[in-house]
Design brief:
6-stranded mixed sheet, mainly beta, 591 residues
C-alpha cells in the first residue's frame, strides 16, 4: 500500500441546503441533496439568490487517487471532477465566489490543495493553488452556526463566476498538489479535509494581518476594543497608525506565539501588536491566571535605598543614610551653598543647639556639614529629620541635590546597569523566545521617570513638616507618551538600550485595560505582577514600584520584594496569524 496515501473528507453546504463531497482513504464519494433556492439573502452587499447542487449522486474510486498528483493527471481524469449546478433566481446577473470553508474537524492544510472551476464543456489545462482567503459574511456565519452548530469565519476561494437568471453548470476539480503547495512534501500525510462549500460574493478579502483584525473588531463594534485618543489624555504625539487597545473582561484577545499563551494588550504606532505573557496551554486552553500566567517571581531591584532603583536600568546611585544626632549640641544648616576651590560654604544658615528639642525648627535648611562649621569638602543634604537624627545623602564636587537627582534619573548615561527584573526577563527570553525574534518589532517600553513631586528632594520643603515626603512619579495616567529619551527603552535607543526586544507593560497600558470598568473586571485581573512604571521613593518605604491588579486593585510595593513577572513583546507590523479567533480555546496562532 502506498505510504503517501491521504485521507480527505469534504462536506459542502450552501446556507439552508446541504450538498456533500467526501474523499476518503478508500473511496471518493459525491452526493447531492436539496436544491431549493436561497431567496433574497444579501451577502457582502450583493443580493445572492442562488442555490448549489452536485449533479452526481455517487462516485467511488480506488486508494491510489488520494495522493499528491500533477495537474495533468488530475485534469485528465473524471476522478477529481464534480459537476456543480448553480441556480440564480434573481432577475439580474449575479457574481459568486465558491468558498471552501474548513470546519473544526479539519486537519488538512488548505493551501496544499489545487482547484479548477470551469463551465461545462470547457477543458481546463492547469490548476490553481488555493490561496485567496475571504471573510464570511455574517449572514453565512449565522446560518452555518444554525445548521452545523459551528462558528466559522473564513473560507478559501475555489473559483468564481457570473450567473444570469437561470442555471449554469460548472465542473469543479479538487486535488492535492503534487508538491503540496509551498508547504513541502509530507505536509498532507495522514491529514483529513473537513469543510463546507458555500457561495459568497467575494468582495471582502479575509485579512489575516493581526493589526487589521483588531482594527476590524473596533470598526464592527467589539465592546472590548477601544481606539486610543491621544488628546483626551494630554498626549501631543502624532502617531502614524491608529492605536487600539483591549479593555474590560475581554476574552477574545488570546494568542499563541513561540509555544506560549499571550494576551493582546494594544497595537503600536507602527502597526505592530504588543502582547503580554500569559502562561502555557493547558487542555487546549489559554485561560490562565495567577502564577500560571507568569514566567516566575522576582524583585524589581536588589536594593531600595535610592531613587536610582526606580530604573529598569540605572547608573549613579545616591543612597540614603541615617545620622544619629540626638546628643549633638551644635549643628549648622543652610538653605543654599557656594562651592570654591573644593570647599562648600553654607549660606542662609541656622544653628540647632539642641537637636532633640529643636530639630522641628529646621524647616527648609537642608544643607549641612553635620557640625558647627559652615565649610566642608563634602556636604550633606538632609531629606528628613526627627528627634533622633536625620536621613541624608552625601554630595561632593560642588554638586547640589538637583544634580544628584538628575544623575540618578535623567543623565545621558543613566542606563548602565540592569535591574534585577530586567536580568531575569532577558535570561528567560534568551532561553525561550530568542529563536522567534524575527517576528518581533523593536518597540518602546516606557520606564517613565518623570517627577510629579520632588518631595524631600525639594529644597523648599520642610525636613520635618513637609506635606510631600515622597518623590512621586507621573505615571498614574492613561497617556502612552514617553517624554524622556532615557526612559524610552528599545534596542535602537543608545541612551536606553535593550539587548532583546522585551520588557514589561507600563502602568498606563494596564490602566487602559481597566478604563471605565472595575479593576476586578479587567482581563488582566487575577495577577500580581510588576509593571515597568515607578510609583514613589520614600525614606520610610525606601522605594515603591507600581505593581498591577493585586487584590482587585492597582497598588505599589517595595521593589526588593519578589512579585510576578509578565514580560511583554511586540509583534511586527503586518504579522499574520494562521488560525484562531482569539478565544481561550482557539487563540490566534502566530507561526
Amino acid at each position: 500500500m502506498n505510504s503517501n496515501k491521504k485521507t480527505l473528507t469534504a462536506i459542502l453546504i450552501l446556507l439552508v441546503m446541504c450538498t456533500g463531497i467526501s474523499i476518503s482513504y478508500a473511496f471518493f464519494k459525491v452526493t447531492s441533496s436539496n436544491n431549493n433556492a436561497n431567496t433574497n439573502v444579501t451577502i457582502n452587499g450583493a443580493a445572492l439568490c442562488m442555490s448549489l447542487q452536485l449533479s452526481s449522486d455517487n462516485i467511488t474510486i480506488s486508494n491510489e487517487y488520494a495522493v499528491p498528483i500533477s495537474d495533468k493527471k488530475a485534469l485528465s481524469s473524471n476522478t477529481y471532477k464534480t459537476s456543480v449546478t448553480i441556480t440564480n433566481n434573481c432577475n439580474t446577473s449575479q457574481s459568486f465566489n465558491l468558498l471552501l470553508v474548513p470546519n473544526s474537524s479539519n486537519t488538512m492544510p488548505i493551501k496544499a490543495l489545487k482547484y479548477a472551476l470551469v463551465e461545462e464543456g470547457v477543458t481546463p489545462t492547469t490548476g490553481t493553488l488555493i490561496s485567496n482567503e475571504y471573510l464570511l459574511d455574517s449572514t453565512i456565519q449565522k446560518q452555518l452556526l444554525a445548521i452545523k452548530n459551528e462558528t466559522l469565519k473564513n473560507g478559501f476561494s475555489v473559483g468564481s463566476g457570473t450567473v444570469s437568471s437561470g442555471t449554469k453548470t460548472y465542473n469543479l476539480y479538487l486535488w492535492i498538489d503534487k508538491d503540496e503547495g509551498s508547504l513541502g512534501n509530507g505536509s498532507t500525510m495522514n491529514k483529513s479535509l473537513n469543510a463546507y462549500l458555500t457561495l459568497g460574493s467575494g468582495t471582502n478579502t479575509f485579512d489575516l494581518r493581526l493589526y487589521q483584525t483588531i482594527s476590524n473588531k473596533y470598526e464592527n463594534g467589539d465592546e472590548h476594543v477601544k481606539l486610543y485618543n491621544p488628546t483626551e489624555y494630554g498626549d501631543n504625539t502624532t502617531y502614524d497608525n491608529s492605536i487600539y487597545y483591549y479593555h474590560g473582561a475581554a476574552q477574545n484577545n488570546n494568542l499563541l506565539f513561540g509555544g506560549f499563551c499571550w494576551k493582546i494588550v494594544r497595537t503600536t504606532e507602527t502597526g505592530g501588536v504588543k502582547i503580554v505573557y500569559n502562561g502555557v496551554q493547558k487542555d487546549g486552553s489559554c485561560n490562565n491566571t495567577g502564577t500560571d500566567s507568569q514566567i516566575g517571581r522576582s524583585a524589581f531591584n536588589s536594593s531600595s535605598n535610592s531613587p536610582a532603583y526606580v530604573g529598569y536600568m540605572y547608573n549613579t546611585v545616591y543612597t540614603y543614610s541615617i545620622k544619629n544626632l540626638s546628643s549633638e549640641s551644635s549643628v549648622v544648616l543652610g538653605k543654599s551653598f557656594t562651592y570654591t576651590n573644593g570647599t562648600y560654604t553654607l549660606n542662609n544658615t541656622k544653628t540647632i543647639n539642641d537637636w532633640s528639642n529643636e530639630y522641628n525648627t529646621i524647616n527648609n535648611t537642608h544643607y549641612t556639614c553635620f557640625n558647627s562649621s559652615t565649610t566642608c569638602e563634602s556636604i550633606y543634604y538632609v531629606l528628613l529629620a526627627n528627634n533622633g537624627g536625620a536621613y541624608y545623602i552625601s554630595l561632593t564636587g560642588g554638586k547640589s541635590v538637583d544634580d544628584a537627582l538628575n544623575e540618578m534619573l535623567y543623565a545621558d548615561d543613566v542606563n548602565k546597569y540592569d535591574s534585577t527584573v530586567k536580568a531575569y526577563i532577558d535570561n528567560w527570553y534568551k532561553n525561550n523566545l530568542k529563536n522567534y525574534e524575527e517576528k518581533l518589532e523593536d518597540t518602546v517600553f516606557c520606564n517613565n521617570r518623570t517627577i510629579k513631586s520632588k518631595g524631600f528632594f525639594d529644597t523648599n520643603e520642610s525636613v520635618t513638616t513637609g506635606t510631600n515626603v515622597s518623590v512621586d512619579f507621573n505615571t498614574y495616567n492613561y497617556s502612552l507618551a514617553c517624554a524622556n529619551e532615557t526612559d524610552r527603552f528599545s534596542m535602537k535607543n543608545v541612551k536606553a538600550k535593550l539587548i532583546y526586544p522585551i520588557a514589561m507593560l507600563s502602568l498606563s497600558e494596564v490602566m487602559l485595560a481597566n478604563k471605565d470598568v472595575d479593576v476586578k473586571d479587567s482581563y488582566l485581573n487575577g495577577n500580581d505582577f510588576w509593571t515597568i512604571s515607578p510609583n514613589s521613593a520614600s525614606t520610610y518605604q525606601p522605594y515603591n514600584l507600581i505593581k498591577a491588579l493585586w487584590n482587585d486593585s492597582i497598588s505599589s510595593q517595595d521593589s526588593t520584594i519578589p512579585f510576578g513577572v509578565k514580560p511583554a513583546v511586540s509583534l511586527k507590523p503586518n504579522i499574520e496569524y494562521v488560525s484562531g479567533d482569539g478565544s481561550y480555546t482557539s487563540p490566534f496562532v502566530i507561526e
